[in-house]
């Protein structure tokens, strides 16, 4: 797998309360494939994850959200957990970055509760998607066709359900990034 993504850059957009494994496993798999991965956050310094039933450990923030743009990256990964996407979905800079990457035909990947961000950017409408089961109705109400599958891909937009899907999710991100930009209808 090493070298598949040499020269590619990935933003993992997160803030406090991200599901620990949903940030760390894709980060580690993408780095192992040769991508440069930046943890991007509206917070400076470090952000704390959520693991099981309590707070997890800290992860270093590489870039402030206010200092990045879509042109800096080939893909964006959106970890879930309940807290992280709920905080980011009211952050206009976060939504703008996600939408800009999507509009540029770049890979957009969301797991667990992170499809909320695809709903709030308008990306979900008319798209095949999956999510954590508790937000299934939110995804359907946003106009997406929800599927109960480990990974659902719709023209470079990748969604997965939960931490049990992370290996398949990470492999699909690598595959879609290798394919390059996607021609899409506007969200």
From TrEMBL:
Residues 8-176 form the DJ-1/PfpI domain. One of its GO terms (biological process) is proteolysis. InterPro entries: C56_PfpI-like (IPR006286), Class_I_gatase-like (IPR029062), DJ-1/PfpI (IPR002818). GO terms for molecular function: peptidase activity. It comes from the Bacteria. Gene3D superfamilies: 3.40.50.880. Keywords: Glutamine amidotransferase, Hydrolase, Protease. It holds the Pfam family DJ-1_PfpI. CDD domains: GATase1_PfpI_like. Belongs to the peptidase C56 family. NCBIfam families: PfpI (TIGR01382). This is Intracellular protease, PfpI family.
